[in-house]
């Protein structure tokens, strides 16, 4: 029994410095950057620590003698390690999104599900909307996220107050037909969506979320959306 306990004891002791180093790195980075650190993880690269702070990944050594901003690429596989980690670090619990505040579109059997936060005056969103018009057997939850201009808020309110929100959204984003709603209904959903987006650290549009919780910022090609829908399945189907 004694011989079996030795490796466990040594393993426990040896793990303590790493934990202590992570705590030290966390405290030092918070002091230097003035923002709370969400997580610190030691990487297998050059003794660097991955620090997730203020919605971005920063790399540093155990003494925080330097802070490295930007992507870390694996020299053997040439994979962008930072991008892969950001996908995990920014993932959400899809089922907790306030779907009742979104413009819902169901096509075909609607089994494949994803959500997007979009500004009606976002050029990239309009480009993506034309691509997504080709999707079938999907349910799309579009959260009106007017962050670009006062006109974005006005158009969002008009779309929300339309008799057919999905049609009003598509008419504007795909065909350029301005919404005719007066925007004088209860638009508290837009304000709540803005608050939700800020809590989720959504700083640009479009931002997509798939049923497995993965977040993808920016306009996504149709082929990538199809690929992600196949991978994520219909976990968030409602």
Full CATH superfamily name of the largest domain: Glutaredoxin
- Low-confidence region ranges: 1-17
Distance between the termini: 54 Å
Report the CATH architecture of the largest domain.
3-Layer(aba) Sandwich
> What does the average pLDDT come to?
88
- Main sheet attributes: strand count, strand direction, barrel closure: 5 strands, mixed
- Domain count: the total is 2
Q: List the helices and strands in order.
A: HEEEEHEEHEHHHEEH
What is the count of DSSP helices, taking H or I runs of 4+ residues? 7
Share of residues in helices: 40-55%
Beta-strand content estimate: 15-25%
What is the CATH class designation of the largest domain? Alpha Beta
According to CATH, the fold-level topology of the largest domain is Glutaredoxin
Name the strands of the widest sheet in spatial order: 5-7-6-8-9
Number of strands: 9
Folded structure, characterized:
The protein is an alpha+beta fold. It has 2 domains: 17-84, Disulphide bond isomerase, DsbC/G, N-terminal (Nuclear Transport Factor 2, Chain: A, Roll), CATH 3.10.450.70; 94-232, Glutaredoxin (3-Layer(aba) Sandwich), CATH 3.40.30.10. The protein contains 7 helices and 9 strands. The protein has helices at residues 2-33, 81-89, 123-132, 150-160, 165-175, 188-199, 222-232; strands at residues 37-42, 49-53, 56-60, 67-69, 103-107, 112-118, 138-144, 207-210, 215-217. The strands form 2 sheets. The protein has a 5-stranded mixed β-sheet, with helices on both faces. The protein has a 4-stranded antiparallel β-sheet with strand order 1-2-3-4. A hairpin with a 2-residue loop joins strand 2 and strand 3 (56-60).
């Amino acid at each position: 029994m004694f011989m079996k306990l030795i490796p466990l004891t040594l393993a426990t002791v040896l793990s303590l410095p790493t934990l202590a180093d992570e705590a030290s790195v966390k405290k030092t980075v918070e002091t230097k950057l003035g923002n709370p650190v969400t997580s610190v993880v030691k990487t297998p690269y050059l003794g660097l620590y991955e620090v997730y702070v203020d919605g971005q990944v920063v790399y540093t050594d155990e003494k925080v003698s330097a802070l490295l901003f930007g992507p870390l690429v694996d020299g053997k596989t040439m994979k962008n390690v930072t991008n892969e980690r950001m996908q995990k670090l920014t993932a959400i619990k899809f089922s907790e999104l306030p779907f009742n505040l979104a413009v819902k579109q169901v096509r075909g059997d609607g089994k494949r599900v994803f959500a997007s936060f979009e500004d009606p005056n976002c050029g990239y969103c309009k480009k993506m909307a034309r691509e997504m018009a080709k999707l079938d057997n999907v349910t799309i939850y579009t959260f009106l996220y007017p962050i670009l201009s006062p006109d974005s808020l006005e158009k969002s309110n008009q779309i929300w107050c339309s008799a057919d929100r999905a049609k009003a959204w598509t008419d504007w984003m795909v065909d350029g037909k301005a919404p005719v709603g007066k925007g004088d209904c209860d638009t508290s959903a837009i304000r709540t969506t803005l608050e939700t987006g800020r809590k989720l650290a959504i700083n640009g549009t479009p931002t997509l979320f798939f049923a497995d919780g993965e977040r993808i910022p920016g306009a996504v090609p149709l082929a990538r959306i199809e690929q992600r829908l196949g991978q994520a399945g219909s976990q968030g189907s409602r």
